[in-house]
Amino acid sequence: MTESDIGRSDAESAALDSVAVIGTGMMGTSVALSLRARGLQVYLRDQDPAAAAVAAARGAGTTEDPPGPVDVAVIAVPPGEIALVLAECQAAGLARVFTDVGSVKAAPVAAAEAYGCDLSNYVGGHPMAGSERSGPMAASPTLFLDRTWVLTPLSETTPAAIETVVELVELTGAEPVMMTPADHDRAVARASHVPHLVAAALAATLDDADDAVLRLCDSDILDITRVAAGDAKMWSDVLSLNATDVAKVLSEVAADLAEAAAAVAGDWTQLTTLLRRGNSGRALLTGALFY
């Protein structure tokens, strides 16, 4: 799919007409831009009016209030704030259906239950796309093209709510995949959260590097540490909300690194075994991504 595929043809018509996006950072603004490109009416909200104004100036929607309940509200705030925003939006009657784009799913659901939210019209979501950059100027209408977008409906979620959010996801060009909140959190601990920590740890070894070392750093280390440029406070919050699963995977990585450190001291067979496991894992990854 190409960027030109986003535009709605005359023959196409979506059941969705209006969406509210709460949070106009990189992710929320990307959702808004993508949906605006499909002809939907998008209403923007942000606790920082300046951020919402920038998103609106980019064509992501309007900062005016909707005249009535919208079809879907997309909550694009940090995972620790999702439940409170959901409760506030439901109390205000902002939308008929609610979803989010948080990278942790179980903790927000537990918090939403504690707030007494109506979970029948809520479908948790997590698009597996992003950037180390932040803010509405980093957003792109093509961010989600051909990417996986995890949806985590609950037992009480209505089929109509699920269908509505699936339609929204497909309008962005992403592929919806259903998982439970717990399965999602276990998977992203290995696929996203721990890789971010490993990248940060490697980048941290360079925080006092001299010019001689930095001159020798090539594209390999730039690629490996790219995500370490992400917002530290936001990532700290994300990791803390998925602490159990992250700790389990991180301990496995730490054990492999400890073995590697010992192997470098003389057990080259063990080191070669680890490197070959790395070859195998990389081959599986690239096969899955480019199949």
Total of domains: 2
Coarse morphology: globular
Beta-strand level of the residues, as a percent range?
5-15%
Oligomer state equals single chain
Rg from C-alpha positions? 21 Å
**Strand order of the biggest β-sheet:** 2-1-3-4-5-6-7
CA(first)-CA(last) distance: 15 Å
Q: CATH topology of the largest domain, which one?
A: Rossmann fold
The amount of helix comes to 40-55%
Number of strand segments? 7
Q: Extract low-pLDDT stretches.
A: 1-14
Which structural category fits the helices and strands?
Answer: alpha/beta
The CATH architecture of the largest domain is 3-Layer(aba) Sandwich
Succession of helices and strands: EHEHEHEHEEHEHHHHHH
What this model shows, in words?
The protein is an alpha/beta fold. It has two domains: 3-179, Rossmann fold (3-Layer(aba) Sandwich), CATH 3.40.50.720; 185-290, Orthogonal Bundle (6-phosphogluconate dehydrogenase C-terminal fold), CATH 1.10.3660.10. Helices cover 49% and strands 13% of the residues. It contains eleven helices and seven strands. It has helices at 26-37, 49-57, 82-91, 106-115, 159-171, 181-204, 211-215, 219-224, 232-241, 243-264, 268-290, and strands at 18-22, 41-45, 70-75, 95-100, 122-127, 148-152, 175-178. It has a seven-stranded mixed beta sheet with strand order 2-1-3-4-5-6-7, sandwiched between helices. Helix 3 packs across helix 4. Residues 1-14 have low confidence and may be disordered. Keywords: Oxidoreductase. Belongs to the prephenate/arogenate dehydrogenase family. This is Prephenate dehydrogenase.
